[in-house]
Amino acid sequence: MRSALAFLVITLAVFAARANAADQTPPQVTVIGDSVLTAVQWNADPLALLEQGLNVQLQIGICRRLTGVSCPFDDGRVPTLVDVAASLGPQLGKIVLVEVGYNDDHDTFAQSVEQSIDALLAAGVQRIIWSNLHGFAQQWIDMNAVLAAAARRHPELTVIDWNDFASNHWSWFQGDAIHLTYEGAMEMATFFRRAIDRFLAPVVIEPTPLPVAHVGRKYAAHFTATGGVGGPYQWRIERGSLPRGLSLRPGGTIDGVPRRSGRINVVVSASDSTGLVGARPVTLKIASVD
């Protein structure tokens, strides 16, 4: 029994190492921002902090708006967030971080936020992380309230409170209290990376013991997992095999009618939509029927 348990522990460690190996594609995150984020994009250290270990696609544009037409800069206008979502579509990936809003009109901001969320979800985005706005004027307070209300309506949206995090840190900002100094760029990169990492936490399979199965009787048991960007997870057997009559469904359910008694040791894994994987050794006891 000890040797079998040791084998399973070693197997799980090897599998975890493989999941983190260099040949694995790092999780993709798209960052859509305006001129505030140029302080991160144009400085090596905050950019490296934001990108480390991730496949980060930066869509940063000066004077970007959410919808309509962006304000002019250098005789041009960058695409709006809705334009970016429409042009990139599935290339955006499953997780998008948004830092846009300072150039949008206060009176139409709520409508623009809804249109932006709809555009991102239509492109296949599963998690939207949206940084609220830093400022002291009533317009920023109102617009941050709009974002908070949108998060209550849309479970796919999480608003991160940059305004509170940066409160009273005057050295992080230039004179407009919006654009960043180098120190502020480092702090924003740190803040954003922590937010991203919360949704890229390792996938963990809950250590719930499987109920005992009985030969010749219908059996069903369901695995659950947490972490990553959330379900639905895809499940599979990574090591070992279930006995004849039982199978693991992609949705995480073992079901069927076992034909022989015994004690089965396998390693199961769950992967989220970004490719993050978690694994756990499990034991299934199949009892004979007297």
**Number of helical stretches of at least 4 residues:** 8
List unreliable stretches of 5+ residues: 1-23
CATH class of the largest domain: Alpha Beta
Shape: elongated
Structural class: alpha/beta
Task: Please give the share of residues in helix.
Answer: 25-40%
The major sheet is characterized as: 5 strands, parallel
Oligomer type: single chain
Succession of helices and strands: HEHHEHEHEHEHHEEEEEEEEE
What is the name of the CATH superfamily of the largest domain?
SGNH hydrolase
Question: From the coordinates shown, what is the CATH architecture of the largest domain?
Answer: 3-Layer(aba) Sandwich
Task: Explain how this protein is built.
By secondary structure, this protein is of the alpha/beta class. It folds into 2 domains: 2-21 and 203-287, Immunoglobulins (Immunoglobulin-like, Sandwich), CATH 2.60.40.10; 28-199, 3-Layer(aba) Sandwich (Rossmann fold), CATH 3.40.50.1110. Helices cover 31% and strands 24% of the residues. It contains 8 helices and 14 strands. It has helices at 2-19, 38-41, 44-51, 81-88, 109-122, 138-153, 162-165, 182-199; strands spanning 28-33, 55-60, 95-99, 127-131, 157-160, 204-205, 213-214, 219-222, 225-226, 234-239, 246-248, 253-256, 262-271, 277-287. The protein has a 5-stranded parallel sheet. It has a 4-stranded mixed sheet with strand order 7-14-13-10, with helices on one face. α3 (44-51) runs parallel beside α8, α4 (81-88) runs parallel beside α5 (109-122) and α5 (109-122) runs parallel beside α6 (138-153). The longest helix is centred in the N-terminal third of the chain and has 18 residues, at 2-19. The protein is elongated. It starts with a helix and ends with a strand. The relative contact order is 0.13.
